[in-house]
């Protein structure tokens, strides 16, 4: 899987976990990503009243984690985040689903952007559960490590 394919995978996913640092602890929260390869960014609409912007201003390093057990695809993206106040970009990426959190639409004063600039991704792509079970059983019998799918790091 190359960089472009990673971007396509991210663009097709509608939920992820955003991990940042909350003081000395790591913190994960579910978010709705808008991945744009042309921007080389993963965008999030977030609430200006929440603590994410403060946390990110103290330590911009984040991880965006995608997991989909239905197709056995897992992706971890590391990069730097920043708060962006850009009304035009906010309107560009806005979707109707976002109005559940921001009833004022893209003009809601509490709706701000969080931009993640990915640096590296690591993915795991597995096979069906049945095939994985067969491979694991075979590996146990043969006393060898099971080959359970593809795994690679990709610079973004």
Describe the structure in your own words.
This protein has 156 residues and is α+β, with helices and mostly antiparallel strands. It has four helices and eight strands, in the order H-E-E-E-E-H-E-E-H-E-H-E. The protein has helices at residues 3-11, 52-58, 87-93, 129-142; strands at 16-22, 25-31, 34-36, 41-47, 61-68, 73-84, 111-126, 149-155. Strands 1, 2, 3, 4, 5, 6, 7 and 8 form an eight-stranded antiparallel beta sheet that branches. Strand 3 and strand 4 (41-47) form a beta hairpin. The protein starts with a helix and ends with a strand.
List the helices and strands and how they pair.
Layout: H1 3-11, E1 16-22, E2 25-31, E3 34-36, E4 41-47, H2 52-58, E5 61-68, E6 73-84, H3 87-93, E7 111-126, H4 129-142, E8 149-155
Antiparallel strand pairs: 1-2, 1-5, 3-4, 4-7, 5-6, 6-7, 7-8
């Amino acid at each position: 899987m190359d960089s472009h394919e990673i971007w396509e995978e991210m663009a097709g996913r509608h939920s992820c976990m955003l991990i940042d640092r909350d003081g000395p602890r790591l913190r994960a929260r579910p978010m709705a990503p808008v991945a744009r390869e042309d921007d080389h960014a993963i965008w999030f609409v977030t609430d200006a009243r929440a603590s994410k912007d403060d946390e990110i201003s103290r330590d911009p390093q984040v991880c965006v984690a995608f997991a989909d057990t239905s197709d056995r695809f897992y992706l971890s993206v590391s990069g730097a985040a920043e708060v962006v106040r850009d009304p035009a970009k906010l309107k560009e990426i806005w979707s109707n689903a976002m109005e559940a959190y921001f009833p004022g639409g893209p003009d809601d004063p509490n709706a701000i952007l969080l931009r993640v600039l990915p640096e590296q991704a690591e993915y795991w792509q597995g096979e069906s559960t049945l095939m994985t079970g067969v491979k694991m059983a075979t590996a146990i019998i043969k006393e060898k490590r099971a080959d359970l799918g593809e795994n690679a790091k990709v610079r973004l």
